[in-house]
Every structure is written in C-alpha cells, then in structure tokens.
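Students often ask why we bother encoding 3D structure as a string. The short answer is that it lets us treat folding as translation between two languages. Here is a chain of 148 residues written in the first language.
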Amino acid sequence: MLYRLHWTEMLSLACRIATLLLVVSTSVYAQGSDEESYNRLVEQAKNGEPSVDFRTMRFLCLRVPSCLPRSTKSQLTELVVTKEPRGLLALCDKLLDQGFVNLEVQATRVAAYQQLGDSSGAARALDLVTRMAGSIMRGRDGKSFEAA
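And here it is in the second language, the structure alphabet:
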C-alpha cells in the first residue's frame, strides 16, 4: 500500500532530517575541534610553555574519546613493579601518550628522573605536575562540575 504525504508532512519531515544532519555534523566537528585543541595544549605543555591552561586541557581530555585521564589498575601495578628508571620513563611516556593529564603518571616521571640523577628533567616534570595540580585546586572547592 502506497502512503502519500501531505506537503506539510513532507516539509516537517525534511526539517527534522535537516536538523538531525546538522546536529550530527556539529557534534563530529566539535569532537575534531576538541581533539585538535587538546593536542595543541599537550604540545605546549611538553614544550614548557608557561601559559598552558591545564583546566581546559583536563576538560578537553574528558571530551576526546582517545584520551584516558586515569590509569587502569594493571597500568598502575606495572608502574609500581618497574624498577629500572629508563624503563619507567618509557612506560610513563607510553601512558602519557594515552592521556597527558594523568597526574599519577606525571608524578611517577618526577621520581624516575630523580632516580636517574637528572635534576633538570626532574625539575621540568615537577613544574608540570605542580602547575597541573594547581589548576585543580586554584580557587575552587571541587564540589560541583563547574568548580572542578
């Protein structure tokens, strides 16, 4: 049986389809934009730029599907059992490629540099951890999403 639509129903259906396509394309564009912004902030932080907005970086990480802000239990266990500092740094780099905002891994990098006797590497890593942690605590109570 053939169903015929009245022109007002066709117009309504066309508007719904157009709205759906607009929403889908906007969300895909926003994801790409978020990922680009996150990657740009990570590169700035790696280069030691002092103006990096770590709060924005943390929120972007939550919106980017490929960013893991926390380590899994097995990854944390691997960090604990890795005793050789160079191997520990390699593991940290691998985990930070998955989520640069991971404070546990960032703090572990400080310890690894200290074990190697690399005071400048330890100082850079500690500065990064301090600024990242400061972005969490600065002027906010952390009790709501807006104050995170």
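Translate back mentally: The radius of gyration is 22 Å. Keep this in mind for the problem set.
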